[in-house]
Amino acid sequence: MARIAILLSDRCHPKECQWECQAYCPPVRMGQECIVEGPLGKPVISETLCIGCGICVHKCPFDAIKILNTPEADPAEIVHRYGYNGFRLYRMPVPPPTGITGLLGPNGTGKTTALRLLSGAEVPNLGEYDRRPEWSRVLEHYRGTSLHAHFERVAKGELRTATKPQYVDRLAEHPATAEEYVGEAGGAARAALAEVGLTGRTDRRLSELSGGELQMVAIARTLATDADLYLIDEPSSYLDIVHRLEVARVLRRLGATKSVLVVEHDLGLLDYLADQAHLIYGEPAAFGVISHPIPMRTAINTYLTGYLKDENVRFRSDPVRFVAHPPKPVGRRNVLVAFPALEKRFPSFHLSVDAGSLAKGETVGIVGPNATGKTTFVRMLAGVEPPTAGTPPPGVTVSYKPQYLKATQSASLRDRSAALAADPTFDAKLFERELVPGLHLEEILDVALPDLSGGELQRAAVALALARPATLYLLDEPSAYLDADERMSMARLLRRQVERQAVSALVVDHDVYFLDLACDGLMVFRPEGEGGASGRGEGPFPMREGMNRLLRTVDITFRRDAETLRPRINREGSVLDREQRAQGEYYYEAAS
Ligand code: ADP
Ligand code: ADP
What we know:
The chain has 592 residues and is α/β, with parallel strands linked by helices. The chain has four domains: 2-70, Alpha-Beta Plaits (2-Layer Sandwich), CATH 3.30.70.20; 73-159 and 266-319, P-loop containing nucleotide triphosphate hydrolases (Rossmann fold, 3-Layer(aba) Sandwich); 330-541, P-loop containing nucleotide triphosphate hydrolases (Rossmann fold, 3-Layer(aba) Sandwich); 555-592, no CATH class. It contains 20 helices and 27 strands. One adenosine-5'-diphosphate is lined by residues 346, 349, 370-376, 525.
């Protein structure tokens, strides 16, 4: 079987190791040039001489090598390849002239690359990484296919594209105001800002805006661009549930007359937003294969099941299952943590949270719009923000994963856990046996924390937090930067750990599928008074009541998919939507 050998160039530090990859390679020891020094001073691994033993993968002190079998996809389907030992993308999505197409797959499997190729920001090299890519070769290669017409327009400069970039936090470095920045797109800036709900104070500089506001500004700028194809990379990051729905509505209006391609990991949102989707499967950083387009409902069901029937590909061993009924309300007799009413007064914000309690083994989600005090509440319980009134329960040990993560030490996760091994407040055995495999951290154990991607750092931080023995776990937005697969597996792991250890957890999050899989109950936060000057937190409520309270304010209802039992947002005004509103059942079917 042929191999793919990948060198993760940014992790490879050939001056800081003993070239273990080469020294231990059996073919090299037999005198074959299987691993040689390349022109950049880094190893080049021959895919034809490699025997697939995996010794270099294990010996590399920086986890910089991957050796895999070639995917079933035809080598002739390679659209782009980043270098000899680089990532390769097979096949392309072809967005229809109108409507919304989703792109759904794990991080590192080529979604952003596909968007860049579609827009012409990068010319496809068709796998010939060592030749200058030329449009003439691309057009010749795709002659007679639907991609030909697309690339022909790109090559001639006739296809106008507008891209909403993935990392909106980088906009904060831009010196412009929101209105100036959106105005640069050439269209009506004010109208676009109003469309995404940003009307007041559009003269503020981008550096003064929150992550959620930057996301809305980035979307507004894309809307203000007159284009034929709109490429939207992760529109939900930093947004609360209200704004996620708002973005979905705005993009649906755009899709009525334009072609829109969206990369999104919030499955409930993508399901509501898109008409069809391409799934991407493969091995992160090594290769990605883009499936044929699948109608939306089937696309998400296929994704959850983990099996692409028409291509006979299993891309996940265990299907994700939902349950149609709410979890049984946890018995209040099992109370583990009881907190009194808490208040916090900032100069321009006042938060009050009702008294509540958490049972043994219970995971409770904290939901609600941004700027209603969710993070402040969690910080009060974590002991980092003193309440103005009320005292967090004494004697409750907490372990806290903050919302914003920053790797300050150059150590790797393995170094961190080794340093903590003797610490009684760290369970090294749990970390190694359950959390590292459960959160798929094996491959990044030796990478310096500052070199991790956003999603990798998130998983590392959650693992470190869960490895601290505590009564109460506080996780602030653990799904941020994770792909859909990572969200599902983290949700299940969290619930299992909390149950098994008979502890409690509070989790701030905005992803409904994540919350559904992880939680037994919900606390609901809402704005109070005029202009967002105060917030109120209530609960914990059982799931049914919590969801009803949240969704009534957001004004949407969910039904259940017959096949996978996953929640699906109802179309506004549909028969089910009207019936459920009348019954006051926004999330679960009426109690039977
Ligand atoms: P996704 O958007 O699905 O997370 P990307 O398209 O950003 O995936 O990247 C896929 C893989 O391609 C990454 O793992 C990265 O290693 C590699 N890659 C992306 N851009 C480049 C580049 N300019 N040069 C070399 N490798 C790249
Ligand atoms: P959420 O987590 O629901 O988005 P936060 O708890 O982060 O809400 O913030 C609620 C409000 O409190 C915001 O308006 C924020 O500006 C304000 N706030 C948070 N921390 C501070 C602080 N240290 N000083 C002053 N105001 C703050």
